[in-house]
């Protein structure tokens, strides 16, 4: 009798936990992000445009340590269609921006006229996509952006590319784009940011980066067609114990998602749970004044495992 009552209590607890998880999903943001997902025609297709090998689960590493057991003897990316990326304007212009920044976050940054032009051309290309047009339309409807395209471009430029002081008592040394898309090192052993798959692939190809394995729960085995991955890696000798990135998505999709999340909230740190395609994600945005400090996805569930199955 006691065992039966215990089972009943456990079932109720599990049900209440599932209900809390389900109710925590931000449905409005899930809806707009799924619209952007459907509009992302530049997204790369797994198994066709690229191939990844997730391999084994990475172990625990304390922050600041560089001692790690490599659980992934092979690179994460075994193949990427670079010709297609170079033919896709936003990808091509994104790659031109990736070498514009100093790796160390303590080294001051200053844009050259050529780099300023590259940023402008990239934003122009992003604004031409249906993903960013829908993003703009949504933000205008919420009173967060001007309907004027030039004003919106300037807003994006400030959010993503405005240089600011990440380290105290220094000249401007960072921006949201550098932190999120390019990556930085706080010290010789610690990586900050670095949440973009294109930069990951290019750095891995040049042997500056070593994938150490995926991160996740004991019951969570990512697939090679997942578009979000929690992972561990080293870069120029520094280590990221737990990182994450969208995989295969276009730069305009990532910018659209995080721009909406940034502008729809005013807290210094904003965390939401959303369902996008077959994945449940936790999205985090950190503000640095009126610019992005950081932004990244965390995979909670893939292949619709978070969808409650009907009782048999």
UniProtKB/TrEMBL annotation:
Q: Which reaction does it catalyse?
A: ribonucleotidyl-uridine-RNA = a 5'-end dephospho-uridine-RNA + a 3'-end 2',3'-cyclophospho-ribonucleotide-RNA
The UniProt record lists the EndoU domain at: 25-301
Q: Which Pfam families match?
A: XendoU
| Cofactor(s) the protein needs | Mn(2+)
Q: Which InterPro entries match?
A: ENDOU (IPR039787), EndoU-like (IPR037227), EndoU_C (IPR018998)
Task: Give the residue range of the signal peptide.
Answer: 1-23
Keywords (A to Z) from UniProt:
Endonuclease, Hydrolase, Lyase, Manganese, Metal-binding, Nuclease, RNA-binding, Signal
E.C. number, please?
Answer: 4.6.1.-
- The yes or no answer to whether the keyword Lyase is present is yes
Instruction: State one molecular function term (GO).
Output: lyase activity
Q: Which domain of life is it from?
A: Eukaryota
Manganese as a keyword?
A: yes
Report quaternary structure and partners. Monomer.
Among PANTHER family, the record links this protein to: PLACENTAL PROTEIN 11-RELATED, URIDYLATE-SPECIFIC ENDORIBONUCLEASE C
Would you identify the family this protein belongs to, as annotated?
Belongs to the ENDOU family.
> Per its record, how is this protein called by name?
Uridylate-specific endoribonuclease
UniProt source species: Oryzias melastigma
């Amino acid at each position: 009798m006691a065992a039966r009552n215990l089972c009943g209590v456990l079932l109720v607890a599990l049900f209440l936990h599932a209900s809390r998880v389900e109710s925590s999903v931000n449905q409005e943001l899930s809806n707009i992000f799924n619209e952007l997902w459907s509009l992302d025609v530049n997204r790369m297709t797994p198994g066709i445009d690229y191939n990844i090998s997730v391999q084994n689960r990475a172990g625990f590493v304390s922050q600041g340590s560089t001692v790690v057991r490599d659980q992934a003897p092979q690179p994460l990316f075994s193949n990427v269609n670079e010709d297609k990326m170079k033919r896709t304007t936003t990808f091509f212009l994104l790659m031109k921006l990736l070498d514009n920044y100093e790796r160390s976050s303590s080294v001051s940054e200053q844009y050259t006229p050529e780099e300023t032009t590259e940023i402008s051309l990239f934003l122009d290309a992003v604004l031409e996509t249906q993903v960013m047009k829908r993003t703009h339309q949504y933000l205008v409807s919420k009173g967060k952006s001007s309907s004027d395209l030039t004003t919106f471009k300037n807003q994006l430029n400030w959010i993503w590319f405005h240089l600011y002081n990440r380290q105290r008592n220094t000249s401007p040394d960072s921006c949201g784009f550098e932190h999120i898309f390019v990556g930085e090192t706080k010290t010789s052993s610690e990586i900050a940011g670095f949440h973009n798959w294109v930069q990951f692939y290019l750095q891995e190809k040049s042997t500056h980066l070593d994938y150490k394995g995926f991160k996740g729960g004991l019951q969570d085995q990512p697939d090679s067609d997942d578009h979000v991955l929690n992972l561990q890696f080293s870069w120029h000798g520094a280590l990221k114990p737990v990182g994450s990135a969208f995989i295969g998505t276009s730069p305009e999709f990532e910018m659209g998602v995080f721009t909406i999340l940034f502008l729809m909230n005013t807290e210094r740190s904003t965390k939401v749970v959303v369902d996008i395609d077959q994945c449940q994600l936790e999205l985090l945005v950190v503000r640095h004044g009126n610019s992005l400090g950081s932004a990244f996805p965390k995979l909670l569930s893939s292949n619709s495992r978070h969808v409650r199955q009907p009782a048999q």
